[in-house]
Amino acid sequence: MRERLARLIYELGFFVFALFYLPLFFMKSKHRDGFSARLGRVPSGLKKALEGKKVIWIHAVSVGESIQAIRLVNTLREKRPAARFLITTVTATGQEVVKKLKNDDDAALYLPIDFRIFMRRFIRDIHPSAVVLLETEIWPNLIYESASRNIPVFIVNGRISDKAIGKYEKVKYFLAPLLNRLRGIEVQDEIMKRRFIALGAKPELVSVTGNMKFDWEPPSQEEAVVEMIRQRFLSADSFLCIAGSTHEGEEETLFGLYQSIRSRFPQFKLLIAPRHLERIQAIENKAKQSGVVLRKVSDFIREGSTRNPESGTGETLLILDRIGVLAGLYRLADAVFIGGSLVKMGGHNLVEPAFFEKPILFGPFMHNFIEMAEEFKRADAAVEVGNASELEKELVLLMQNPERCQALGRAAKHLVFRHQGATNRNLEMILSAVA
């Protein structure tokens, strides 16, 4: 009874929300792609290709989770070479990453809108042998419709953020039956385990397998871009700071910091990689207002010349306007600032720069990666700064103290290697349900 009532309330609420939001959602050009899939329609060619096959469906949200999904698929394929894999995402950037990195035999689609009719049609057409949801992708109709067909559904790399836990607690009465429809919940740490259990999940369903983000490996794509930037943008005495996955409000701060440091240390260089590429034009406008000459990486590469990029008038810095390049570029950095942490966005993953043994700096707002951030601080593998002036001060200290750079970088890499293995642990649970 409680489950039936929960589902009814969810669908009524979702319908009201969708009535007002979905028209705006589909009006945005970046969401028009995949319209049919969002309504639960599977292309006829794909439907035929999957017919009679053992299909494992992996769902991720955006870029970071999509990269994890690809890694999980590649690992699963080694154990189940006859299986076919479908990867769904919510965002356009996530879809772009999946299509770029996936195997030719794998399929990539947008997740259908979580109405019963759409999800039922989608599941009927792909008929998965198992469904794997990354992190906190709790979609009621996806779970109910799969479970009603005896299709095992798992959450792997499970997490519930500080921001989300309060909201989930308000609907705990209805959430508990949904969580207990899952075949297993594999979480990142003990805190996440306690949170899922507190929301009503049976303790025997929840286990700690670690954070798959620590299993990151450097990409093989875009090596030519990395090498070109190394040769044309950097010199022997350059000190490059990469600001990765920045959000609105941080770029202006970085422009001021850049000008201040450059006035004293001409070897300082900055590469900004905004989290959302649709903001590039707005960032360029703000750069002009700040008196900064900003060059896009795509333009920088297209020129193809060997002239020094700073031979023109004014100061220059680079802004990354290409997806899938940032991770490889971290290997060029002398220091890395984690975006989304000077503003209240919750920060981003620390593993990629840590893998390359880079000193890492982040602001006070790392609540989306709170456990990871705290562990990095405890291991002296990263430095937290309270504001822009502290960030500038720390960057100058790193420029003047190469030994500190090396110590922070070594500690970061050691921490990452110590935590690896979560992907294989999650694999064991999935394979137990997929004969």
Per-chain topology:
Layout: H1 2-27, H2 29-32, H3 35-38, H4 44-50, E1 55-59, H5 63-79, E2 84-89, H6 92-101, E3 107-110, H7 116-126, E4 130-134, H8 140-148, E5 153-158, H9 162-170, H10 172-179, E6 184-187, H11 190-198, E7 206-208, H12 223-233, E8 239-246, H13 251-264, E9 268-274, H14 280-290, E10 293-296, H15 297-303, E11 316-319, H16 326-329, E12 335-338, H17 351-355, E13 360-362, H18 370-378, E14 383-384, H19 388-400, H20 402-419, H21 422-433
Parallel strand pairs: 1-2, 1-4, 2-3, 4-5, 5-6, 6-7, 8-9, 8-12, 9-11, 10-11, 12-13, 13-14
Helix pairs in contact: 1-10, 5-6, 5-21, 7-8, 13-14, 13-19, 19-20
Structure, described:
- With 435 residues, the protein is an alpha/beta fold.
- The protein has two domains: 19-217 and 420-433, Rossmann fold (3-Layer(aba) Sandwich); 223-419, Glycogen Phosphorylase B (Rossmann fold, 3-Layer(aba) Sandwich), CATH 3.40.50.
- The protein contains 21 helices and 14 strands.
- The chain has helices at residues 2-27, 29-32, 35-38, 44-50, 63-79, 92-101, 116-126, 140-148, 162-170, 172-179, 190-198, 223-233, 251-264, 280-290, 297-303, 326-329, 351-355, 370-378, 388-400, 402-419, 422-433, and strands at 55-59, 84-89, 107-110, 130-134, 153-158, 184-187, 206-208, 239-246, 268-274, 293-296, 316-319, 335-338, 360-362, 383-384.
- Strands 3-2-1-4-5-6-7 form a seven-stranded parallel β-sheet, sandwiched between helices.
- Strand 13 (360-362), helix 18 (370-378) and strand 14 form a beta-alpha-beta unit.
- Helix 1 packs across helix 10 (172-179) and helix 13 packs parallel to helix 19.
- The two termini are 33 Å apart.
- Mean pLDDT is 89; it is low at 309-314.
